[in-house]
């Protein structure tokens, strides 16, 4: 029997794929896949955006969840201006440790270089960026500054609205009202072997398992294997089993995903609440470099 028929996903996919969207007048939006992702052209990210164009860009992020935009050689200031359209810029606790010797540290830019000497690459697991923060990142803007010579290095994204919608009604009823712990140490110490700076601890936060997006009003699944350790209201064995199922649900549901192939000077912009992503490390021993800015909204997010 089909896994998807068991979870009654066809009505959810039909509702998503046939939902009407208002036309765009200031940018061109071309879907990358039916359920998530779009390519956006018609914007000059090297200059401030007009208010009508910015309003459409914000709407496109929340409608399509991940946008691929031609960057045309953005400067660091251009990159940061793009992030600030969505809130104040986030400073990552591991940012200083990612600076290459001789480089300049900017707390608002998270950079990395993955190559033959790397023990890991950032984001090589399904996750939402820094979900351990009390006020998590809403939108991230990523550019890859060096692509692997052999190709590869794609980034996969999953639609967490549909990850929730394709669950059975009984499981949705079980998840209602549950909260989960998201722990930075789980991701960065156990995952990367990184320690916090002296006198500091990695953040730990409690968030609803199913949150409701303030811009769309839609519920989405907000747990991920990188940061989420346990569900507060359940015994650990039940929590582990449920979180394991939800992680596999996202991993195996290819109909909810898109895999974005990087191009030179491209910028990826995504909704970090209603989408998860996974950086594909298939290019070893070749190098991939990148820089990310991320925006935190000026209001309390993640209401149940």
What can you see in these coordinates?
The protein has 304 residues and is an alpha+beta fold. It has one domain (3-296): Double-stranded beta-helix (4-Layer Sandwich), CATH 3.60.130.10. It has helices at 3-6, 9-18, 51-64, 76-84, 160-165, 169-175, 184-188, 236-252; strands spanning 28-31, 38-41, 66-70, 88-89, 110-114, 139-146, 155-159, 179-183, 204-208, 210-212, 219-221, 228-231, 257-260, 266-271, 275-279, 288-296. Strands 1, 2, 3, 4, 5, 6, 14 and 16 form an eight-stranded mixed sheet that branches. A three-stranded antiparallel sheet has the order 13-7-15. It has a three-stranded antiparallel sheet with strand order 9-8-12. The longest helix has 17 residues, at 236-252. The protein is globular. Pfam families: TauD (PF02668). One of its GO terms (cellular component) is cytoplasm. GO terms for molecular function: metal ion binding; taurine dioxygenase activity. This is Taurine dioxygenase.
Number of helices: 8
Which percent bin holds the helix content?
10-25%
**Rg computed from alpha carbons, rounded to a whole number of angstroms:** 19 Å
CATH class: Alpha Beta
Order of helices and strands: HHEEHEHEEEEHHEHEEEEHEEEE
- How far apart are the first and last residues' alpha carbons, in Å? 33 Å
Uncertain segments: 1-7, 95-99
% residues in beta strands = 25-35%
Which second-level CATH architecture applies?
A: 4-Layer Sandwich
Main beta sheet, described?
8 strands, mixed
Whole-number count of domains: 1
- Write out the CATH superfamily name: Clavaminate synthase-like
According to CATH, what is the topology? Double-stranded beta-helix
Could you tell me the number of beta strands? 16
InterPro entries: AtsK-like, TauD-like_sf, TauD/TfdA-like
Domain TauD/TfdA-like: 29-292
GO biological process, one term: sulfur compound metabolic process
Keywords: Dioxygenase, Iron, Metal-binding, Oxidoreductase
């Amino acid at each position: 029997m089909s896994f998807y028929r068991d979870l009654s996903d066809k009505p959810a996919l039909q509702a998503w794929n046939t939902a009407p969207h208002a036309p765009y007048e200031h940018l061109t939006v071309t879907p990358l896949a039916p359920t998530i992702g779009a390519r956006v052209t018609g914007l000059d990210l090297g200059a401030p955006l007009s208010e009508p164009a910015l309003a459409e860009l914000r709407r496109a992020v929340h409608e399509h969840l991940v946008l691929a935009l031609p960057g045309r050689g953005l400067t660091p200031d251009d990159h940061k201006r793009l992030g600030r359209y969505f809130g104040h810029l986030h400073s990552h606790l591991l940012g200083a440790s990612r600076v290459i010797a001789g480089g300049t540290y900017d707390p608002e830019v998270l950079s990395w270089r993955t190559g033959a000497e790397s023990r890991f690459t950032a984001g090589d697991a399904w996750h939402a960026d820094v979900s351990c923060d009390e006020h998590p990142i809403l939108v991230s803007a990523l550019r890859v500054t060096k692509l692997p010579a052999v190709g590869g290095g794609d980034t996969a994204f999953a639609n967490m609205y549909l990850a929730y919608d394709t669950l059975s009604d009984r499981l949705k009823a079980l998840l209602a009202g549950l909260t989960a712990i998201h722990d930075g140490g789980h991701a960065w110490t156990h995952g990367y072997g990184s320690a916090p700076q002296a006198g500091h601890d990695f953040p730990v936060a409690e968030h609803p398992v199913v949150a409701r997006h303030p811009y769309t009003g839609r519920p989405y699944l907000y747990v991920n294997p990188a940061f989420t350790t346990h569900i507060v209201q359940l015994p650990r064995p039940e929590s582990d089993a449920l979180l394991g199922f939800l992680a596999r649900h996202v991993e195996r549901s290819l109909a909810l995903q898109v895999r974005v192939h990087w191009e030179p000077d491209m910028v990826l912009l995504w909704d970090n609440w209603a989408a998860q992503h996974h950086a594909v490390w298939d290019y070893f021993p070749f190098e991939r470099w990148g820089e990310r800015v991320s925006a935190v909204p000026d209001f309390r997010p993640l209401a149940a």
